[in-house]
């Protein structure tokens, strides 16, 4: 394989001599264990790193000098799909990341892997999760955060979306997380190393994420391991505004001189129309030129050399720091991205602070500890379902809870075909089948081991049942829903009061909205649950009998679900469906939520006053 390209020095031209004979690059790229083997090589190279012995499901790199039992500073954890090396594992080290969670190539890491990383390095001061703005990362890191909180860990999360290539998006997708995330890692890591509290570290990271913008340009498409390189770009073409997963860019154009390309990218990032970054003339800034995987350092330096005078002369900016190299790549993609961050004295102090993260870079001296350590397990909760058991005799509330759960999941099971039919018109046609799997698992597991006399633990186990069998976004969202409710209920009285159930529902809705990005009017399950929660709280506060309040709130849930016919989708696959089709079908997820909520409410009403 050859992937040689050059900037013609006489004309500063991004002219690529594509001597590319790509089929399947190098035999080791065909290995299904490419990520685990990368990690093994990484820790052999750098003695300051270790990995958790949980391959292939748990792929976590941590600092070798940190353990949760002894670490007295805020842990900084990040991660995402692999294929972006050195991100994220190459930035683990004192002064930057405490742990990096590695997914498969271009795939978000699992919730279990993220939890393993949190448990391995998080001490009493808590941990900050820094997450690039992609739906899979948001949901998986979000669910792991909620689970960790329920285990007693202090957790905060900052989402980075620094993409400046596209117009401001509608809905919940938002701006993609790109190479500017690395600067946020460095700032957060330095703040944590200085001994700041979790909230203060999170505040600095969030501020940094709001100060940075990024845009990329590519001259080739990346090659996934074991696959043939796509032939999307023809000879003499380049792509502007692409992401880091090989997805198409904002525009395809003929090859242009490098100074023209750099000027265009800088103008887009600093545009006052989109106002993605709060940078104006006279500001101090940091510049990062990031290679996308197959760009020689020489060419990255040429881009840096063109960028600095354009920023100074055309935009009136003072360039205080320039970082040039490969920080967040896209496998073997030829191209680069430019990131600009507004600087102040605190940001410069954090960026200048020492770090031993190998790809910032740092030296590799030091004693070599063992390469791997055991994966930690939670100590505050049972490790498997065998340690849970169904009570021999149910309390009155335990019996009501059983009947409510049974009614709820039975309603979902009966609605399967209708949900699939609705979803076939506005989604991928599997909503009913997916919900059926979760409902059937809950029904089966409840009969075996749910501790029904303990409402909090029962709700938590429902989340575990869902996690085991429900795929896709629905499974993650319902698991988040249950984990957030569990965190609220475990501090409640026994038996749990109606008001405490209402507060738990409110907490669950807030968690789903936080990590899923949707809110009222987005045509999702929240359009059934939010009005239900509002009515439930109102009626309970007004002194209504709890059973009556639940039934009235169920009516609000059904009305809210039906109202989704009149909504323009702003989340999920329905966002791609024409509005005239959406108007004929309610949102399947909202209808499912209204169904199980109503069934549970009626079961509560029928049995609340029974003896």
UniProtKB/TrEMBL annotation:
<dbReference type="GO" id="GO:0005829">
    <property type="term" value="C:cytosol"/>
</dbReference>
<feature type="active site" description="Tele-hemiaminal-histidine intermediate">
    <location>
        <position position="245"/>
    </location>
</feature>
<feature type="binding site">
    <location>
        <position position="132"/>
    </location>
    <ligand>
        <name>substrate</name>
    </ligand>
</feature>
<dbReference type="InterPro" id="IPR004006">
    <property type="entry name" value="DhaK_dom"/>
</dbReference>
<protein>
    <recommendedName>
        <fullName>3,4-dihydroxy-2-butanone kinase</fullName>
    </recommendedName>
</protein>
<keyword id="KW-0418">Kinase</keyword>
<dbReference type="GO" id="GO:0019563">
    <property type="term" value="P:glycerol catabolic process"/>
</dbReference>
<dbReference type="Pfam" id="PF02734">
    <property type="entry name" value="Dak2"/>
</dbReference>
<dbReference type="InterPro" id="IPR004007">
    <property type="entry name" value="DhaL_dom"/>
</dbReference>
<dbReference type="InterPro" id="IPR036117">
    <property type="entry name" value="DhaL_dom_sf"/>
</dbReference>
<keyword id="KW-0808">Transferase</keyword>
<dbReference type="GO" id="GO:0004371">
    <property type="term" value="F:glycerone kinase activity"/>
</dbReference>
<dbReference type="InterPro" id="IPR012734">
    <property type="entry name" value="DhaK_ATP"/>
</dbReference>
<feature type="region of interest" description="Disordered">
    <location>
        <begin position="359"/>
        <end position="393"/>
    </location>
</feature>
<feature type="binding site">
    <location>
        <begin position="81"/>
        <end position="84"/>
    </location>
    <ligand>
        <name>substrate</name>
    </ligand>
</feature>
<dbReference type="GO" id="GO:0005524">
    <property type="term" value="F:ATP binding"/>
</dbReference>
<feature type="domain" description="DhaL">
    <location>
        <begin position="399"/>
        <end position="602"/>
    </location>
</feature>
<keyword id="KW-0547">Nucleotide-binding</keyword>
<comment type="similarity">
    <text>Belongs to the dihydroxyacetone kinase (DAK) family.</text>
</comment>
<feature type="compositionally biased region" description="Polar residues">
    <location>
        <begin position="381"/>
        <end position="393"/>
    </location>
</feature>
<feature type="domain" description="DhaK">
    <location>
        <begin position="30"/>
        <end position="360"/>
    </location>
</feature>
<dbReference type="InterPro" id="IPR050861">
    <property type="entry name" value="Dihydroxyacetone_Kinase"/>
</dbReference>
<keyword id="KW-0067">ATP-binding</keyword>
<dbReference type="Pfam" id="PF02733">
    <property type="entry name" value="Dak1"/>
</dbReference>
<feature type="binding site">
    <location>
        <position position="137"/>
    </location>
    <ligand>
        <name>substrate</name>
    </ligand>
</feature>
